[in-house]
Design goal:
The chain is about 40% helix and about 15% strand. The chain has 19 helices and 14 strands.
Length: about 425
Amino acid sequence: MLNLYKFFCYFNYPFWVLVLAMRRFKGKEHKLRYREKLGYFKENRPKKDLIWINALGLGETLSLTLFLEELSQVFSDHTILITSSTLQSKVALEKIPLSSNIIHQFAPVDNYYVLNSFLDYWKPQMALFSELDIWPLRTNKVKERKIPLLLINARMNAKKKISRRRLGNLFTEPLKEFDHIFLQDQSSKSHFIDFGVSEDKITVNGPLKLAGTIFPDTGVIEERLKILFKDKLIWVAASLHDSEENEILQAYKIAKSHLPNLVLIMIPRSVELSINTMKKASRFSKSVIARSNDSDLPKEDTEIVVINRVGELGLWYKLAFISFIGNSFNFKEIKEGKNPFEALQASSIVIHGPKMLEPGYGKLSSMGISDIVENRYDLSSAVVRYSVASRREEKIKRGLDYIKRNKVVVHKLIRYILKIYDKREGR
């Protein structure tokens, strides 16, 4: 299967052109920069040595921002190239104040011409691929050039193991190309070993998300919103699965009867879902607005704001006294919860459903940092309870301390990278 796939990669350029053209027509690709995926480059390559880091989409990219910034300081005489595949990840990165030696490009597709052009142009001294964004030809081409290749922030649960098993040697052979693999959790280790990865190539380092992120620079709009929301209590419900939204709105209705100055900020897990979120919210309030651009601002009587744009999650967490982290209710269609650490970093109280199953997520409630809520009644009760500032102080302090301690996850990974970088061939 692998040989057939590599043969296909000699001739699949027209296929990628067609796919990207269709995605561009649907607004899923940048109008001009989509060409980067096909081997064209907007940026002039800096003369410095370069380290290449690849992530897939928005979540994976944002989870690397603190790591990117710390890495750029340690390798201050290098260029750090971050590639990603989605338009949303590019939009979000543009809003984050990263060091000047960090540049973004869209990731190359798996085609011989494109990958050769990419590697010829950027000439990376090391390549780091994040999570499980593994393409057979990409890994092979990197290793052909004797470039140290690392898999970082990777995780594989039982479900992902089954799906990767179906890929056969399209997954197992590229996995063996990595010089070292850094995992988020101990339970992933046995799964990687089952795919033939040598145990001495594996280090369990922890999830980079635990250390927080770098928020976009939203100082100007933040000050305007503070004035607009003066004397209001802000509750954020973020990364919502559509099945959770009715429960959130019912909880808001209950809590609002106790807290007349309560404003709900609803942030669906995908921008495309915000139209349906607006329809649902409008059934519960006549004062609902969608925030799609900078000019969409709440009014004095606004009760519900639906966020329809990328890159503002940190802004709303900073304004909120309490944040519900979605994709976590105990519904059949919901899998494992979303990232709670950005809200903790912003000094917001965190509440979530019981399905917080990713590494590090479940610990928060047992450590007294977050509260588990099961339904609209738990939700509304928590919102009313934590509307009193004195009840929030201790939990906020614990959350901030936890984020601070977890910076070690980033620092440990960078120390490992330094050692591997210094030992690379031809140095």
